[in-house]
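Researcher: Good morning. I'm working through a list of sequences from a screen, and I'd like to move beyond sequence-only analysis. For each chain I'm collecting a predicted structure so we can compare shapes side by side. This is the next one on the list. No need for commentary yet; just the structure.
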Amino acid sequence: MADRGASALSLPDDWPAQPEPILALNRMGCFDWDLDTGLMHMDAQAHDIFDMRPDEYDDHPETLAKRVPPDESRRLDTAVSQAMKDGSENYGAYFRVRRRDGSLRWTHTQACIRRDDTGRPRRIIGIVRDATRELAESDARSDEAAKDEARRQQTSVVELTTAALAHARTVQDVIDVLKDTHGLTHLGATSLVMGLVEAGRIRLVAEGPSDSFVPGTRVTRIDEPYPMSEAVRTLGPCFIESPEEFAERYPILWPHITDLNITSAAYLPLIVQARPIGAMGLLYNDRRGFTPEERNILVALGSSIAQSLQRAMFYEQEMDLAQGLQQAMLPRTIPSVPGADVAVRYRAATLGGSVGRDIGGDWYDLIPLPGGRVGAVIGDVQGHDTHAAAVMGQLRIVLRAYAAEGHTPATVMARASVFLHELDTDRSATCLYAEADLSTGVLQMVRAGHIDPLVRHTDGSCRRVTVPGGLPLGLSAEFGRLDYPVSTVELDPDETLLLCTDGLVEQPGADLDDGMRTLTALVATGPDDVRDLADRLIDVAAERGGDDDVALLLLRRRGPDTPGSGQRLQRHVAPGDPAALAEARHMIRTAVGVWGDRERADDIELVADELITNALMHTEGSAIVTLRALTGSERRLRVEVEDSSSALPRRREAGESGVSGRGLLLVELLTDVWGVEARGGGKAVWCEFVVPGQD
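Model: Good morning. Structure tokens for this chain:
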């Protein structure tokens, strides 16, 4: 019997036969697709294969859409597009066509792609044929293909859910992924409930749709008659295939959820290492019952979710431990500082990757020192892990100890570097240490590879203070360079010192100088109160994100509490300039008369004259004389003589007829307290006199 569609054709008498009869006899149709115009011509046999009359087809491929199901059309379009894209000369594909009666039959197409000289596709010429005979059991194969597709879709539920959970780090992240609209779509469920086992009870952590919470189920016992409890108790899934079954098996729960229109549900135990850590319920309102394949898929899904939950629970436990270690290493409290307002802040970075990378070695500290001074520290140990935090804690403690012992800032930094080197760790650290005398406003700062500090002035302007520095801690000892230059800065009343780690400055794609300029502008426009300013800076860092911790210390020197306190006079005395020396003496006598007790004017002038003379005689440069009025528990006058020599003054024994060697003896006898401070490349010899206040 001749094939249908070929009966109208006569058998060819000539030999060999021509292509057209051969195609027709083999139930093949031809098409010619002009890609420039979009028109596709098909012969009568091709019309027959698509079960379309000639008057139903207008040479536009889109007209075939009513014969080719959407899934098949997308698959065919993908094959054609890929062939044109990758430079193929031909392609072939099987697809199904829906006939007028609604039945599906397999069809096959094969075509050649014609391109121009540039390689651009211009024309596709091919055949289309009925593949029913080739696929003898097309209906059975179609059903099997549909089943395979369903199985693939079910399997993809586990794959898609597992992929979505790959980035979930906390229990809440897991819940959010599962409750997300796309997550529920993958699961095929309407809503989700979840509980975790804690101390022999189940604590609800996700309660399904909003306003669907059932009173009394926040925490339940494992032996209570609830489906989630049953799944945990039996370690097996609990499938509920109809509302009637739900009402019969769980009469306590069902009356509270009837408004949700639940038609079926699956409660899955979340098991890890043969131990239940919780249970999850998937609620449906568009289906009844579960096939064996669906049950297997859901059990596999529960196993995948359980693994993600356990990973999230371990992560949270380790994060609690790491953050506890971080907080233990930082100062628990910051002491109040007379004469200053202080604010400190710390923000941990949030990094992807392994647990423990959300903490680091940034730290701050405020150290009370003798004589009303205070030490301010900011530092950053290399790395983002618990080891960095542990090294930071040790380094903070020893640096505090060295400062409290009364060592100079340079010595404090050098000893801390040696300590870190001898700690036998591969970590280095940057640090900036500022020792402040708040009564005078003098800051002595040393820097070990750290970023410079900022000073905000009373007019609101802000500037970067350039501090010459040495190598980072731990490296200086290794390279044999323990010199840390001391820089001296004066902080006037109501001015603010800002110390921070580079997490507040560095931004992706910008260099450090740009970051410092941005921070300077931010500080200049920030609130006056140091606590409010600290909050604003840390909020900006949080909004910006970044992969580094942020530590911040703000110290604002308070203004004078009484009239005249904090006043300062200064005079420059050059060698061989008697007039300048006389002016300095006159300045001191006049200021003492105005600020303090005239009875001590002679003593103060004598001591100042001795210090100035020593500076001019024993150094090669000039001297700078500063007189300050200080307040506190008692009123004091402070005299400082600064020179360019780092050599310390030393007491000498004067002979019976000697006229020198008694300078320091006079200083000790006439002053209430005196001392020497390093000032960059030089020093300052200072002394203080307690004087009665004026009425």
